[in-house]
């Protein structure tokens, strides 16, 4: 896939995810649905010829692994900073918080730092690494939110006898 298309996909996915994150949304808990976008991004990343700079393979792989691990960590942070609640009808809702916004800013700064480090080491940074990292981020965030949502006690419309 040509590089400009990947750049547009990255910008569109990030824009879509950020815009939706800060709106209260019903939590569906559909496992297939939470896997679709990360799977598509991972396939795009693995098909990308710029995933690893072949002139500096070891350094490129190290930066890729660090980048993916950072995004996994940020996915956990993002998942735990998302507010999750059950309304009076028993419907589970999720919405990003101010802490979520700070997590996004931190994640972007780390990503820029990794790109700068790669550049300083002479490693070409391709969009394949960003696509793979974004896939890991979204997958982990969805897993954390799903796990947290399943831990919420059911809402009762009237007091429980006991």
Biggest sheet features: 3 strands, antiparallel
Derived structural class = mainly alpha
H/I helix tally: 5
Q: What's the number of domains?
A: 1
- Oligomeric organization of the protein chains: single chain
- What's the total count of β strands? 3
The helix content, as a percent range, equals 55-70%
Radius of gyration equals 18 Å
Mean of residue pLDDT values = 84
The rough form would be described as elongated
Distance between the termini: 62 Å
Strand-and-helix sequence, N→C?
A: HEHHEEHH
Strand order of the largest sheet: 1-3-2
Percent strand: 5-15%
In terms of per-residue confidence, which ranges show pLDDT below 50 for 5 or more consecutive residues?
none
Overview of the molecule:
With 162 residues, the chain is mainly α. The chain has one domain. The protein has 5 helices and 3 strands. The chain has helices spanning 3-21, 31-47, 57-81, 98-120, 127-150, and strands at 25-26, 83-86, 92-95. A 3-stranded antiparallel β-sheet has the order 1-3-2, with helices on one face. Helix 1 runs parallel beside helix 5, helix 2 packs antiparallel against helix 5 and helix 3 packs antiparallel against helix 4. The protein is elongated and about 60 Å long. The model has no long low-confidence stretch (mean pLDDT 84).
